[in-house]
């Protein structure tokens, strides 16, 4: 029955989407959008991918790599992002990261209804923060066999004063003034390093993923800060977790070739130091020459990312697949 709800997707004939209505929030009607490959790999292994901030799913090559390695591919455009951003909504705007749990619940329920029994939950940047928290306390966390976090957003990439005084103060104000808007503070050069119109290799819809990131509200900052505090305290995720990040953080302002070989958004030291606290079965890998979204790195680098990812998945999922086969 779920099959009938899929419609053509903006990525063309290889993909299809299902818009999932959700309960209204403080801005009105809400939806999330599940995207999948039209021709899936056989079997019951699948991945559910969650994008980052000022982002949406557009990485066709990633989907095809998963299929080539025997995984059914799905991606979720969260509420107020990309395909799910409605005209009355503020882009990316939430006041608590748990608002996204309903989107993940709905997507995982559909994956299970379509016969997927071994599910990898994957998140990039802010999506990595979200899926780590969901794996700790989401209502369908038991459906997840493993997690892959691509440069997860575990801490603000700011100076000590802002991280320890400015952000906590602003987050506290967000409780009473959630709609006060803050300016975008990420360099536009990162977006320029990605998109074909500028210096990059990739083509995507700029209104959904603009070169200058969307501004945020104090309520959003409060939600992110609360998530970061939980990561800093440590989680107890029972599933195996793979965290990948670049081996270097961008070290200079202004345009340079470093944008093609470093993380220009986050401080990789924060990822490296915080990731082991996610659970008892965490593998952390630094990718030489990787950028913030590792699967958008230069061809040789992203080939290495996929090689390491699927080698790790083959190892950690073997017991789960064996148990499924016995059933």
From TrEMBL:
One Pfam family named in its UniProt record: Hydrolase_4
Q: Which residues form the Serine aminopeptidase S33 domain?
A: 45-247
Q: Which residues form a coiled coil?
A: none
- Note the Gene3D superfamilies from the entry: alpha/beta hydrolase
> Taxonomically, which superkingdom?
Bacteria
A single GO molecular function, which one?
A: hydrolase activity
Name the UniProt key words of this record, in alphabetical order: Hydrolase
InterPro entries named in the record: AB_hydrolase_fold, Hydrolase_4, MAG_DAG_Lipase
- Name the record gives this protein: Alpha/beta hydrolase
